[in-house]
Structure formats: structure tokens, C-alpha cells
Amino acid sequence: MAEPQRPRPAADALTAPFWDAAARGVLVIQRCGACGAWQHPPGARCHRCGDSRRLEWTPASGEARTVAWTTTHQGLVAGFEAAVPYVNVVVELVEQPGLYLLTDLPGDDPALPAALRVGAPMRASFQRIGDAFTLPQFRPTGDAR
Amino acid sequence: MSWAHAGKVAFVGVGFSRIERGTDEPLGNFAEEAIADALADCGLPAAAVDGLATYPDPPYLGAAQREGHDMIGPEYVLTHCRTGPIRWYANLNGGMVTAAIVEAALALIGGACEVALVWRAMHHPKGTYGLRRTEVASGPREFSEPYGCVSPLQWHALAYRRYLERFGLARERMSALVLNSRRFANLNEHAFFRDRPLSEADYAKARMVADPFCLLDCDIPVQACVALVMTTAERARDLRQRPAYLGGFALNAYARPPIAHYTLVDYLEAGGQTASQLWSSAGLGPRDMRAAMLYDGFAPSALYWLESAGFCGPGEAFDFIADGRIAADGVLPMNTFGGALSQGRLHGMGHAAEAVLQASGRAGARQVRDASAIAVFSGSPMYRGSGLVVTSEP
């Protein structure tokens, strides 16, 4: 399967810390210092308590569980046409219910069967995309690669 | 609290354009056809129109947005449709066309206008439809587009997978809804698939697009316009057609957690909130509905509405749609015009128009025996859904 031409994150003032940390191999998620809630994608305010001053980028464990998945069979985004079929998985970080991130796996990846089960344990890894950025990905725990 | 103005706003005209695919003809031509048809239906001249409302959003992220060619806002209509002096208009960006209908009703009740025209025009040009082209992802899409997860098709597929897993259901059972819609479309001259029957075998061999979605679980993009003429119940008495009435409404204002894609987590909660607002507004409940027009841009949305609105319990929608219960003589005739799946992708306007035709006894071969109260739910329950109750009596 061909590695897709991935859109590059804009990494603006709100989101750059996520991408900067990913480049160092660290998964950081916005967390509210007032109420303790984690949130992703990041926002200017805490979704739970509304606090805007104590949102802090906080390292997360990278441990997650599979919630849902879909296999894309047709080109829906320019750059991914040659990558079909590929699989997107929604994972939920262990830090908080509803704290979701995405990942993708090639449709022929041997790790797939282990990932595509509700509750399957997944762990963050980091994929360097050319010299553009580093993309957090999730793979089944125990996957040796 | 029950809406004090239930039954005081009437739908008096329904109009349809041609329904086509892959055309370079300007969308404005289709809008003008539908609007002229709706006005002819109720017998009012265009000059009587003094209010305009639409939900003009392009059909997908990145679609062309040339006014008059790809989308039709109030500016186009007041310039080209020979309306009277416009006293009120609304150009909505949420809640789908249901929100435009609600706004028009409130404008009529408030005296801001006397005759409101509401339309939804959708383009379907030649070429690739819906392909997202972007080199840089921004906003929440920074966290989905680099993974190739860009389309509502995929977001809904993720939610649908979760639904199927949560209740231990097989995706093949969706055929009952898809075939029911096609049978109704075959009775509807305004449906794209009016002449094309569909069999269980056709459904079984449909190609997968984003698992668990096959092609037939997705609505069919079309170029078309549907228009409604609304006025006060009082003024409706003198017009050509038997009116239908707005019995209640709801707009989803659920505080959704910020996520980069749809999930299922909140469909019962968000949809349930929208539905309870609707039932409260109308002073009626799901047992009072004699038919339901449930949004099916992606087929599972209709299942989620069945469950979140209380037509059946959580996880029971596949049982509910089976065995003819949603056919014309079933307990709840559903999407009797073919739905977006088989009429075409009109972002909820086909659903609203059919509720009006049914409630006013004008649905022809599709007419349900008792059309006294019809539920319309638009959008997906988990994201800015909306609802109407349309009644045959004020």
C-alpha cells in the first residue's frame, strides 16, 4: 500500500503545542487546571467548566482503547486515493471517557485484527511524515513494530 | 411547554424542480422552477411573497459556492423570482432547512411578513463529488484530515460501527429501510429513483464505500430544488389547496463535546432532547404520529431518530423497521416519498415537503390513510438535528 500524501496540520497558536510535543515523541492533551477535565481537540475554554486561564498541555499516558473503526474503500481526500483501502480507528484515551483520538492503519496491516475490537488496548506511537510533521498513531498493544 | 402558536401557521404550496445528476446547468434554473411550481400550487402570484428563508449550505466541505450557480440564497431569489417587496428574510447556517421553516413560521406569527417562501436548492455538477482537496488541515480538522478521515461519510461510518457493536447488530438489516424507501420512490414522480426498483439482492451486492456503509446506505446526490409557501392559517383559508399546519418544532441546541468527528456517544441524549422539545412544543408524542419523515442522508440517522424520539427503544430500530411496519399500511409509514436515499439529497426539504403533502391529503399513490399528525426530523440527532410536527387540522 502506498503511503498517502497527508494534509499537513496548520499548527496555529492553539494547536502548535500538540504537534511540537508529537515531534518529541510525547502525546500532550489540553487539561483544565480548574476542574481537571481533559479535552481534545483543544479549545480556548474548558468545555466542562468554562475556565479559560488554566488550560494546560499535559502529557497523556498514550494508553487507549478501541471504540470504533471504518474501512475507507474509495478516495475521499486528495492524497489518499492510492492508499485505499485504509482503516481509521477511534480510540479513547484511558485518561477520560469520551477523550477520543483518531489513528489510521493500512487495510493489509497484520496488526488490524487485534485493533478492530471494541475495547482492544492501543498505544500511541509516532510517525514522522517526511520533514513536515510527526503524527501520533495508535497501534495494538503487543504489536512489536 | 406547548407552543402557543401551534396550528396558526400553514403550508399552502409545495413545488418541485426537475431532479437530475451531473449537470452544468445553473442551479438558479432549478430554484426558479420549484418556486414557480410552489406558487402555482397555492395560486398566489410571486408578488405576494414578502418573506424568504433558506438553508443554503453547500453540499460538502470545499464545494463551489457561486450564488445562482451552486447555491441559492435570498439574494438570488429576490433578484430573479419577481417577488413582492421583501420585508423579512433569513439565511440559516444550522439546523438544516427545518430551521428555515421554523424561522419563517416565527416571522409569520410575529407579523414580519405575510407570505413566506422557503426553499432548499442543491447542486450536483459534473465531475468528482465530495472529494476533499487540501494540503493544510486547520481547526479541529488538524486532528482528522492527516489520517484521511475527512468526510461526514467516514464520521458517520464510525458512529454506525459503534451502534452495530453496542447492540450486536448486523449491517445487512438496513436493507429493510433502504428497500422501503425505494418502493415509495417508485411511486413518486419527484424522486430520482422513480423508475428504478431495488431488490434485496441488489442491496446485498452493493459495493462498500466506508465500512459498514455500502453505497445504498448513502443518499443519492442530486441537483434539484424544493420550495414551500407558508402563510398564516387565517390567510390559508382562501387559497387553492387544503393547507397543512405547523403543530410544533424543535431545534437541537445540545452542548456537544468538542470532537473532530461524529461518534455515537450522545445520539440518544442529544436526539432525545430535540425530540422531547418537539413533543412538548406540539403537545403530542410519538404514539400520536401517523407517519414519520426521518432524515436519512446516511441511513442510520433514521434509526437513531426512531430510537431517540421514542418510536422504539435503544437498539430496537432494526426490529422496528422490519416486517412492513414502516410501509404504507404499517404502524408508522416512514419516508413515504423515498427519503433522501431514493428521492435525492435535499438536506431534509424532501422530508418536510412530503409531510405537507401527506397532511393535506395530496400524496397520491403514497397517501397514508390517517395523516393527521406527521413527525419530521432533520439532520443527525447528535449534531444540530431539528424537528417539526405537521398536522392536517389547525
Number of strands of chain B: 12
Quaternary arrangement of the chains shown?
A: heterodimer
CATH hierarchy class name of chain B = Alpha Beta
- Largest sheet strand order of chain A: 7-6-5-8-9
Helix content of chain A: under 10%
The coarse silhouette of chain A is globular
CATH architecture of chain B: 3-Layer(aba) Sandwich
Q: Please mark out the parts of chain A with pLDDT under 50 across 5 or more consecutive residues, or reply none.
A: none
Number of domains of chain B: 1
What is the gyration radius of chain B calculated from CA atoms?
20 Å
Name the chain pair with the biggest interface and residue counts per chain. A-B, 44 and 44 residues
Describe the fold and architecture.
The complex is a heterodimer of chains A (145) and B (394). Chain A is mainly β and 145 residues long. Chain A has 2 domains: 51 residues, no CATH class; 85 residues. Helix content of chain A is 8%, strand content 39%. Chain A has 2 helices and 9 strands. Chain A has a 5-stranded antiparallel sheet with strand order 7-6-5-8-9. In chain A, a hairpin with a 3-residue loop joins strand 8 and strand 9. In chain B, the strands form 2 sheets. Chain B has a 9-stranded mixed sheet with strand order 3-2-4-8-1-9-12-11-10, with helices on both faces. A two-stranded antiparallel ribbon of chain B has the order 6-7. The longest helix of chain B has 16 residues. In chain B, strand 2, helix 2 and strand 3 form a beta-alpha-beta unit. Chain B contains 12 helices and 12 strands. The mean pLDDT of chain B is 94. Helix content of chain B is 30%, strand content 18%. Chain B is α/β, with parallel strands linked by helices. Chain B has a single domain, classed as Peroxisomal Thiolase, Chain A, domain 1 (3-Layer(aba) Sandwich). Strand 1 of chain A pairs parallel with strand 5 of chain B.
